[in-house]
Amino acid sequence: MTRKTALQKAISLLSEDKMNTEICEKLGDILEDMPLTNWTDKTIRDRIEQFYEDEGRYPTTTDFKKKGMPPHPVFKHRYKTTLSRWLKENYPTPKITYEQRKEKHTKAFVEEYLRLLPKSSDDFDRRRQKGVISWRGLAPYYNVTNWHSLLQALNLPLPQPEQKKRVKQKFNIKVYTDLDFEAMLEPRRKYY
């Protein structure tokens, strides 16, 4: 259990009693400031474990630029090595193959497509959840260059155009004219 999880559970338990309101507020403040700025080995590892719980993966060196993560110089000072080397030794991440990456992206794309049932490629890209690959990102895995070809390669249903509801309209037409119809009916005179 990480420190953040422990604090969350403590707040939850203490909040059941109204007399603990102030305690819960202070613990909430501490929770927002997590992790604390004194980076010990224990707090560094705790923060990495919390990142894993939150993100489902261990952090990369780029993730350490985010708020709440120990900065790069901490590793140089505390462990006398670079962050990159320290991560490789303590939290190695296995390299995934091309096929594994293709399978992962395809699964996420198909699930998102079936959830959204988008009307177009732009509709899909606009409404897809963060972290789901765009159709243009997935297309090269299937050697296609357009939206419909990708959907066909994945055996996904093609979007159906929305049928417009036709409303029959009724018109009442009244015509008013100032023309003299009798003069129009007279035979025309021919002038030679």
Tell me the layout of helices and strands.
Layout: H1 3-14, H2 21-32, H3 41-55, H4 72-79, H5 83-90, H6 98-116, H7 121-127, H8 135-138, H9 147-153, H10 181-185
Helix pairs in contact: 1-2
Structural commentary:
This protein has 192 residues and is mainly α. Helix content is 51%, strand content 0%. The protein is built from ten helices and no strands. Helix 1 packs antiparallel against helix 2. It is elongated and about 115 Å long. The model has no long low-confidence stretch (mean pLDDT 85).
Brief description of this entry?
By secondary structure, this protein is an all-alpha fold. It has ten helices and no strands.
Please give the largest β-sheet.
Answer: none
Q: What is the number of helical segments per DSSP (H or I, 4+ residues)? A: 10
Low-confidence stretches: none
Helix content: 40-55%
Task: Supply the key terms.
192 residues, mainly alpha, 10 helices
